[in-house]
Specification:
Length: 372
């Protein structure tokens, strides 16, 4: 049973009800003062607390997409690959760890659905090493080395906390890309899928932290250079786009605004517009107020020259706390930057909302990318 499937929720709810009934039946029998009775009551209280919490946690996970499988939750078998790589990434910074086992529309034939490779990417400048998935569409697999330079590239980022697997299992990025190509609504593109949490468990908000992880450098310089070199893709920033949800959306928009020489198009689904500061992030700015302002996207748009990038933001009029900031963001964008938007009448900060936005956003993003 999948962690986000109805049977998992139903089984957990049935277990919780059974434990509740057992507690009602056993409590009078454990009313005495002896050690056995006291320990029995403590055990029942712990059991009912844990089993009642599990259905709620599964429902929250289903909405937000934190974990795609029980293996992700238990930190077991995070990457189901048909082979295991060994050694360090190659000279280009990429090591292929294996082929991700998947099926779509009753097919597992790479000639029909492409190939998803599980890779390890090591940044030459940032020294950050992280796992990612790369979806190579069927057209790429058939193309010559020279023609592969004509494929656009989309970097897809999850939120925080999350895992890379949710981008395949819940958000279905490769599946939406295949459907778009078959429907004639988008061109084939290479997808690079990963979490913005490349130095777990810290949430660095895709920043170069003073005296800390150089996460922005990884995403803006290391990742495109390594992927382009390994897969024979163009490094022209006009062919590269980045999108994500929640924290991943903030990262995507910030990368385009701060590093237009890396990405010329970006989309943020339910994105925040400034870096969070909490126990998961630590001190991101090193006490530098100017650095803090420079990573505030609304401040950047209002106070600094805007680069020639295409941006898309998605939100909901009801259910999204950042909707007013999204309106302010749209109004602040000026030429040569351009902005588009998806506004739903209602929808929360959750998986159900984002899944309505991923396919049209992916199609929009690829349409803005230009390859040599």
């Amino acid at each position: 049973m999948a962690i986000d499937a109805w049977p998992s929720f139903a089984v957990s709810l049935a277990v919780a009800c059974a434990v509740f009934a057992l507690t009602v039946w056993a409590w009078p029998r454990l009313a005495g003062r002896g050690a056995r009775n006291v320990l029995g009551r403590i055990g029942l209280q712990l059991a009912i607390t844990l089993t009642m919490a599990l259905p709620l946690l599964l429902a929250v996970n289903s909405s937000y997409g934190f974990y795609a499988s029980w293996g992700d939750l238990l930190a077991l078998a995070r990457d189901e690959t048909s082979a295991t790589g060994s050694g360090r990434p190659g000279r280009d910074g990429v090591r292929v760890d294996g082929a991700h086992s998947w099926r779509y529309r009753n097919s597992s034939d790479p000639a029909m659905i492409g190939r998803i490779e599980a890779v390890t990417v090591r940044g030459a400048r940032s020294r950050i090493s992280t796992r990612a998935y790369v979806h190579l569409p069927p057209e790429y697999l058939r193309a010559s080395a020279a023609d592969r330079r004509h494929f656009p590239v989309v970097v897809a980022l999850s939120g925080y906390p999350s895992t890379t697997r949710v981008l395949i299992d819940l958000f279905k990025y490769p599946q939406h890309a295949l459907d778009g190509v078959r429907a004639g609504t988008m061109r084939p593109a290479v997808l690079v899928m990963l979490t913005p949490t490349v130095v777990p468990p810290r949430d660095t908000e895709c920043m170069d932290v003073p005296k800390g992880p150089q996460t922005e450098t990884f995403f803006a310089a290391d990742l495109p250079a390594a992927i382009a070199s390994h897969y024979g893709l163009t490094r022209n920033p006009q062919a590269w786009g980045v999108m994500g949800n929640s924290v991943g959306g903030y990262c995507a928009l910030k990368l385009a605004l701060r590093k237009p020489d890396s990405y010329r198009a970006a989309a943020g689904l339910s994105a925040s517009y400034e870096a969070a500061e909490d126990p998961t992030t630590g001190n991101l700015f090193g006490g530098n107020p100017r650095y803090r302002r420079e990573n505030d996207l609304l401040w950047r748009l209002r106070n600094l020259p805007q680069p020639p990038v295409s941006l898309l933001v998605a939100s909901s009029r009801t259910g999204e706390h950042q909707y007013p900031d999204t309106v302010d963001f749209i109004n602040a964008v000026q030429w040569p930057a351009r902005v588009s938007s998806i506004t739903l009448p209602s929808g929360g900060h959750n998986y159900e909302t984002w899944n309505r936005e991923v396919k049209p956003t992916l199609e929009w993003l690829v349409s803005r990318l230009q390859t040599p």
